[in-house]
Design a protein that fits this description.
Elements: H1 14-22, H2 43-56, H3 64-71, H4 79-88
Helix pairs in contact: 2-3
Protein name: TIM protein
GO molecular function: DNA binding
Length: 89
């Protein structure tokens, strides 16, 4: 492809660079950018998050997010994910 050099002018992700050097469609399913996606919140998790928020929002001098993370039944959620979901809700 004579115009492949144009691709080099724009920022690329590591997965795209790998495909450019090894050949397109060389990434297997579950590799690259799709691997780093955050699992979506289920309705049960959203309900639990809402209940924990209402339970700990009135606590004086405490970190609400830390209390929610300590009592969240689903492990593996980060502080950032919890804050982002609360803002979205």
């Amino acid at each position: 492809n004579k115009k492949a050099f144009v691709e080099l002018l724009f920022w690329k992700s590591p997965a795209t660079i790998y495909e450019m050097t090894k050949g397109y469609s060389s990434l297997q399913e579950g590799e690259g950018t799709t691997r780093s996606r955050v699992p979506p919140w289920t309705p049960h998790e959203e309900q639990e998050l809402q209940e924990l928020y209402w339970k700990y929002k009135e606590v004086e001098g405490g970190d609400i997010i830390a209390a929610i993370l300590a009592h969240l039944r689903t492990p593996g959620r980060t502080r950032r994910q919890v804050v982002k979901q609360l803002v979205r809700m």
